[in-house]
Specification:
With 119 residues, the protein is mostly beta strands. The chain has one domain: YVTN repeat-like/Quinoprotein amine dehydrogenase (Methylamine Dehydrogenase, Chain H, 7 Propeller). It contains no helices and eleven strands. The chain has strands spanning 2-4, 9-13, 19-24, 29-35, 40-46, 51-56, 60-68, 71-79, 88-89, 96-103, 106-114. The strands form three sheets. It has a four-stranded antiparallel sheet with strand order 1-2-3-4, with no helix packed on it. A four-stranded antiparallel sheet has the order 5-6-7-8, with no helix packed on it. Strands 9-10-11 form a three-stranded antiparallel sheet, with no helix packed on it. A hairpin with a 2-residue loop joins strand 7 and strand 8 (71-79).
């Protein structure tokens, strides 16, 4: 779960259903259900860009954009190595960091760094 305290939103993911749920913390109601890549593991929120990132063990980072606090849309998934289990978002630069335990199927210790694009 990730929270946007300014807009009172919670972003919930569960590995079993591959859905991002956006929840209104004031009204206690669901705002949106959005499909994502298989195997959701961790969710992070970038308040400056209004982006939600979900690391999925299937080999993708699912990306969502908040157009406003009531409207969300899915952006293209970013392919990564399978089994990414962690993400970090730099709120100043909007870079997304994803450590990987494999590269091209071989054991490794690698950090993927993504530059967020306007969209």
């Amino acid at each position: 779960m990730a929270i946007d305290p300014a807009r009172r939103r919670a972003f919930l993911v569960c590995e079993g259903n591959d859905i991002l749920t956006v929840f209104d913390l004031e009204t206690h109601r669901t705002i949106a259900h959005l499909p994502m890549a298989k195997g959701a593991d961790v969710v992070m929120f970038d308040p400056g860009l209004g982006r939600i990132y979900v690391a999925c063990s299937s080999g993708a980072i699912s990306v969502f954009h908040m157009d406003d606090p009531a409207h969300f849309r899915k952006l293209p998934d970013v392919p990564v190595e399978p089994r990414i289990h962690s993400l970090a978002v730099d709120a100043r630069t909007h870079r997304v960091y994803a450590p990987a335990e494999r590269e091209k199927g071989r054991p490794a210790s690698k950090m993927f760094v993504f530059e967020a694009l306007a969209g």
